[in-house]
Amino acid sequence: MQSHPFIDSALTRSRQLDNRLPLIVAERRRSIAEIAREGIPSGKLETWKYTPIQPFFAAPFGDVEPPTGSSARTHLSFEGAVPITLGDKAQPAIERAGISLETLDSPLNADLDLTRYPLALLNTALLEDGLAIRIAPGVDAGVLDLRFSGGASAAEVSRIRVELAAGSRLRLIEQRSEDRPTNSVLDIRVGPGALLQHTRILTPTTAPCWYLVSVHVGAHATYDLTGHSMGSTTRRNDIHIRLDDHHASTNIDLACAAHRRDRLDHQTVIEHIGVDTVSRQLVHGIAAGSSELTFNGRIHIHPNAQRSDARLTNKNLLLDKKARVNTKPELEIYANDVKCSHGATVGQFDPAQVFYLRTRGLDEAAARAMLTRAFLAGRMPPWLLEAGVLEMYAELFA
Amino acid sequence: MSPSVPQDAVAPSATLLEVADLHVEVAGKPILKGLNLNLAVGEVAAIMGPNGSGKSTLANVIAGRPDYVVTQGSVRYLGTSLTELEPEARARIGVFLAFQYPVEIPGVSNMEFLKASLDAQRKARNEEPLSAVEFMKSVRSVAASLDLNPEFLKRGVNEGFSGGEKKRNEILQLLMLQPKLAILDETDSGLDIDALQTVAAGVNRFRGAGNGILMVTHYQRLLDYIKPDTVHVLADGRIVKSGDHSLALKVEAQGYGWITDAA
User: Fold this and answer.
1) CB contact, 8 Å: A350 with chain B?
2) Is any Cβ of chain B less than 8 angstroms from the Cβ of A366?
3) Is the CA virtual torsion A361, A364, A367, A369 positive or negative?
4) Do B64 and A358 touch (CB under 8 A)?
5) If we measure between CA atoms, which residue out of A128, A175, A184 comes closest to residue A152?
6) Which residues of chain B carry a pLDDT beneath 70?
7) What pLDDT, on a 0 to 100 scale, did the predictor assign at position A154?
């Protein structure tokens, strides 16, 4: 066992947390032991090429006060959504039958790929708060608005388990505005024929934040993700989707915008495991100032996943000379009857568009601001625009 | 609004646009080679000429396209030199270009774009922005006059528009912005006869004693609907022949050869 100041403090912290989530104590112990045994990764890892993993292990989880001056940002309001605030002991009772909110239980990590995501072990060891949302078979659960805020009671290490039983539906909105080191896992299982439409809005933070969305999608089930990630000092978003069974599908639509010296790193792994599975990924990035955007999109088509259909598009807009974009598709295909395409672009404003706007009286700055908005808004559904997501981006470029 | 350009009190027959010995390069290649042209307030002039003669270059350079370089000569608008002004400054004092190929801007609605343009121009003239209600009323009425469905205003700027819709959208902007100098760059190209009549009716509605129109066109057909006061033939970067509407008819009947050979 290696001795390391962070591991020592994590051990202590882990023990302090036993009374918070008593059902997972044994799993906590195993996780912390494994971290101690493996040690903190040193040097460069291929999957952490542009964003070093080390700061995510060094962050002083649990004993930080929110930075002064930062307050919980206002969350957007969505019509008909039932808000659930994590860390809030007085959860609103969910009136609708077929929706249950429960305490997290063991086993926590049965559905996660811990080899690929060692930070999920840290999440287990230091887990402060969590929730299991379960939707009963055939139930249309409407809209749940899951809020993570920067208030003093909010956890920096959290886990949400979402289970949709066969034939159920849920629209899940996830709004995060915590401005502290964060390690958060969303562990999702979409049962046969079920539909989960997930919208996540990540507002700017100044602390290293790691997020994992891990999803298993069953036969004829669909997982859709619309994600918005706004400039942060260091944020890594890992998204792992396994299309386990036949006719499972997923649509990923991500937008991210960085400025100043932000580092935003999105990594998707889509595994086509069942036959006739479909994945679509569209990732739009804007990099301003001296920021750096990274996108790595991996598509893995397993040997039996015949007639898989995978598409990946990554478009980036560079606003300043010092801004940087790293984009890489990775295809690993073991079946012979598949459709798979990928494309990436990195560009600046189209001078013809800028000129057109200027000939109508808009100055160059206004024209650029309008085109930046357009790059993000072009694909947003009306309900998201109406909720005010664009205005949140506008603050970033103001 | 630049204080040197009195927008409201322009005497008819005063010179609106004065282009003198204009030389322009595009990507290092000379396109306009000493072009002279005058347009009076209240005048409608057609610019015709063979492909590659420099018609579109002239239209774009007056509007201020950044990559078109003026190497010699001058462009004066109501006495103000345009060549040092940014495109938006030209727009704000009343210069308008209806594009030959209007660009698509997905994600910006036509309405939002029009309102922002109008607000920017009104602000430059120290005028209050139109209220949303006034604006909507005005834009709906103009759109209807051009046979444009109101739904069209909610779509992205020129996004997925047909060729005819794009051109009508340019005329919509012309009518909303009410410039002093309108340059129409092949506004007739790609239009069927019905759309051509609608567009021409829009331009004729705009036409007035207080403004001027420079119409770049390949075909005399447009001039049947928008009668020009003068017709200029442009060849190899210079105006080589000027006349009245009969010149356009002669060009249509005989082609450009008789003019360019003589020049």
Assistant:
1) yes
2) yes
3) negative
4) yes
5) A128
6) 1-13, 263
7) 55
